[in-house]
Design goal:
Layout (H helix, E strand, L loop, with lengths): L1 H6 L1 E4 L5 H16 L10 H11 L1 H11 L3 H7 L2 H9 L6 E11 L14 H4 L6 E6 L9 E5 L11 E3 L10 E3 L9 E3 L7 E5 L3 E5 L8 E10 L3 H5 L13 H6 L2
Antiparallel strand pairs: 1-8, 2-10, 3-8, 3-10, 4-7, 4-9, 5-6
Helix pairs in contact: 2-5, 3-4
Length: about 250
């Protein structure tokens, strides 16, 4: 917890049983197989590559349905999750403010995030926490995240500007100052059950996919603390980001 307080992040190996992550994998594969008459895909990469190349509407349906899997809800509300949030991150009364899932592939770099802080998007508190989980083992060719620890930037919230053309919510808010001259940490090797915990004020970005046939399937669970003053002042309401409304930009430029 002392390291997390200083740096704002921690990589926890074997934080959860691999069987719980495999359950997410299996439910996602089952859901994807309902969209094809053959229903015969044996792994997520072949499922995703088929629909990405042949039927983008079905690929979008897989992406949309990902976050609603019951296995993700079970993991988010598990005793192990709350124990890690309490012991590692100092969250005593967790509120699950957002579930997000990503499928990142080569050739779709326009959907990746540049350097950003999650506070810009979820707003509720700089001390809220992201739990970032790979569904399949993460290797260098499937990228990962780069981040800068808070020890080198004091946990401050960086200046931003509105994005340009809206491809996804990654475009909604952009960094509007130079990157600090600090060490950049790459997280690109994780097994099923490993978890990266980081605060909303940690500066980080997506690492592009190098593999031509393997993608990155990840779950992002965002937790605030009901006892956090900022979350109380926000009336327990996280921010909204879409093509019409960006709460953080409106907050900073009333």
């Amino acid at each position: 917890m002392e390291c997390f307080d200083t740096e704002g992040y921690a990589l926890a190996r074997k934080a959860f049983p691999s069987s719980e992550i495999q359950a997410i994998h299996d439910e996602l594969l089952r859901m994807g197989n309902t969209l094809d008459a053959s229903g015969c895909f044996q792994d997520l990469d072949s499922l995703w590559n088929h629909h990405k190349q042949n039927d983008r509407n079905k690929a979008s349906a897989i992406y949309n349905g990902f976050k609603y899997l019951a296995s993700i809800q079970r993991l988010a509300s598990s005793g192990a999750m709350h124990q890690h949030l309490r012991n590692l991150c100092g969250i005593q009364f967790p509120a699950l403010v957002d579930i997000n899932c990503r499928i990142d592939s080569q050739g779709e770099e326009k959907y990746l995030f540049g350097w950003h802080q999650d506070y810009w998007f979820s707003v509720c508190s700089p001390r809220a926490v992201v739990v970032w989980l790979p569904v399949t083992p993460l290797i260098p060719s499937t990228g990962g995240l780069q981040l800068i620890g808070n020890a080198h930037m004091g946990g401050r919230i960086f200046k931003t500007k509105p994005g340009g053309q809206y491809q996804s919510y990654a475009d909604a808010v952009l960094l509007d100052e130079d990157l600090p001259p600090s060490p950049i940490i790459s997280i690109n090797e994780m097994d099923q059950g490993d978890a990266l915990f980081f605060r909303f004020d940690v500066l980080h970005k997506s690492i592009p996919i190098q593999s031509e046939d393997r993608s990155r399937f990840t779950v992002q669970l965002r937790f605030a603390d009901y006892a956090d003053t900022d979350f109380i002042n926000a009336k327990y309401r996280p921010g909204t980001v879409n093509s019409q409304v960006v709460d953080y930009i409106n907050k900073e430029n009333p």
